[in-house]
Amino acid sequence: MTHRTKTRRRALLATAAAAPVALGLRPAAAQDWPSRPIRLVVGFPPGGSNDIVARILAPKLTALLGGATVVVENRTGANGTIGADSVARAAPDGYTFLLASASVVAISMATFPNLPYDTLRDFAPVTMVGMTPELLAVNPQVPARTLQEVIALARTRDLHFSSSGNGGLPHLAIELLRKVAGERIIHVPYRGAVAAAVDAINGQVQGIIMDLPAIHSMAREGKLRAIAVTANARSPLMPDVPTSVEQGVPSLIAVNWFTVVAPARTPEAVVNRMHAALTRAVNDPEVREQYTRAGVEPLTSPSPAACREYLAAEIERWGAIAREAGARAS
Q: Cα separation of 215 and 298, whole Å?
């Protein structure tokens, strides 16, 4: 071996040894992780579906990670994107994670013209942690009891459908319905799910599409008539309500999911350990029971790489739908 070869080999070894330091976590620190509280940021106020999922998982994660407290931190505003941006800018040291829904890390890529982050560039995906379909429901006075009857009715008169706001998943689900039923499906955005549901109940609009947990109790009480679950399979929370696929509209698939991501350049060893802990947490019987009560179904990724692939596919799908509809967040 020549002197030049030896020198080059030493340089390569030195670079390899320094890599964990450049990533912000030395090998010893990676082994010691976690040694202090972990922030799990949610971009919405307490009580919403993102917050509920985070608070179900946090105690179980604390136990699985050796007692390092997982603290849920609500950083609200701009449809969840303020909290997401704070995580994108956080130190990639394994002590800040984001729990986010489809609207925050997939749909926002197309509906926010000046989004300060790029999901696939600025985050290290960890795993999916749950999902919930949308529920299509109508005011009880609307003469339609099936999805096909809603479509037929929309070909004879205007049907106004409310959502929780422009540019979110419920809005895009209404656009999918509009593609099938025609131009007389009219989207009416509200500021939040409660206001959208109140006007659907009062008859100010004829229908609503919303995350199933947000309005299922209103349907059970007869204040709304449940028409379809926008998924491939029925929801355990409303097993008697048929899916859009069962009713002959396979294009009307709108599922809200929840994922956990870290800042980009978070050490791979930490991402893998968090993936393992989250997978165990989601599959824990106690967590699953709490999920069921909240209307959330368990969903995990086989690996962080698989999570990234899923996010990329969802960004592409919802981006195309949003651009075709001209949807913009407000």
A: 20
Which candidate, 201, 199, 236, places its Cα nearest to that of 219?
201
> What pLDDT, in 10s, does the model give residues 41-57?
999 888 788 999 999 99
Structural domains of the chain in order of their starting residue, each with its CATH number = 6-132+257-325 (3.40.190.150), 133-229 (3.40.190.10)
In this prediction the pTM is 0.82
Instruction: Please say whether the beta carbons of 108 and 115 come within 8 A.
Output: yes
Calpha distance 210→219 (Å, rounded)? 12
At position 178, the amino acid (one-letter code) is R
28 CB-near residues (< 8 Å, 6+ apart): none
Alpha helices for 243-303 (secondary structure H):
268-282, 285-294
* Cα–Cα distance for residue pair 146/153, rounded to 1 Å: 11
**Which residues partner with 124 through β-bridges?**
262
Q: Which residue(s) pair with 256 in the sheet?
A: 132
Dihedral, CA of residue 221, residue 255, residue 234 and residue 288, to nearest 10:
-90
- Nearest CA to 300 out of 258, 254, 264 is that of 258
pLDDT tens digits for range 155-211: 999 999 999 888 889 999 999 999 999 999 999 998 888 899 999 999 999 999 999
Residue 238 DSSP symbol:
B
Q: How many Cβ atoms sit within 10 Å of the Cβ of residue 57?
A: 27
